[in-house]
Amino acid sequence: MKTYSLTENYIHKFDSTKTTIGLATEDLQVFYGDYHAMYDGNLQFPKHAITAMIGASGSGKSTFLRCLNRMNDDIATVQGKIFYQGIDINASNINVYEMRKHVGMVFQRPNPFAKSIFQNIAYPLKKAGIKNKTELKQRVEKSLKQAALWDEVKDDLKRSALALSGGQQQRLCIARALAMNPDVLLLDEPASALDPISTGKLEQALHDLQQQYTIIMVTHSMQQASRISDYTAFFHMGHVIEFDRTENIFTKPHIQATEDYISGNFG
Ligand SMILES: Nc1ncnc2c1ncn2[C@@H]1O[C@H](COP(=O)(O)OP(=O)(O)OP(=O)(O)O)[C@@H](O)[C@H]1O
Predict the structure, then answer these.
(1) What is the pTM of this model?
(2) What ipTM does the predicted assembly reach?
(3) Could you give the domains of the chain?
(4) C-alpha 55 – ligand 1 centre gap (Å)
(5) In what order do the strands lie in the sheet with 184-188?
């Protein structure tokens, strides 16, 4: 296995007068017990763009992503800052439940509730205090349309979500996350369990959502990263080695490790 420098990196910095940042990390470090899993996470994620996180298995992509809405709180020590609208959401005084309304997450495997399609979206909204039936209906419809699922389910919203295909279930989970009106959407390999047609629909939905959200997505598929992301971060052994516009990462990366990874000569 080739060894690469872990200190040599290239991180694109944004001009704050031209680009609005939806989420940013500062010196993010993660420890699972004594194991140092993430070293130097300093990244800015622009609004209205999709950022893909790529890298070999175990490089730290999910660890990094899960920090962004505090999913690692109970299993790891997470040091550093995560800025959302100027607030450090990694601080101990943050109400994590409230924060997650702004920073939503969709997991690798679709995880709908064993409830109807309608209730999968309405139930969390009710728990968040929305009781008005008209508003609930409107928000269910809006989020299903945003996730490009409405046309496929609108005639039978009472159907069990578990009867949907995997691809439909994943778009339902996206709709459920969107119903809370987040600004940031985190996705951990959302298409890994889907067939190519479902993946295409999911990618189209994400492409449309990008106009309104900050989207950050872990993917194992370099083709997917190059198809739908605007920016790409390459991870290696707990370090962010390179972050740049996706076209640069795939055509003229600055770092040898990135070039080897994207050209299949890695390791
Ligand atoms: N809950 C945990 N406890 C201990 N170590 C963990 C835990 N989760 C992840 N790790 C370790 O942290 C490192 C990074 O793992 P992580 O899952 O973030 O990588 P990844 O790049 O997302 O991998 P994959 O592509 O396989 O999902 C790995 O060495 C992994 O074994």
Answers:
(1) 0.94
(2) 0.98
(3) 10-262 (3.40.50.300)
(4) 12
(5) 10-11, 239-245, 231-236, 49-55, 214-218, 184-188, 103-106
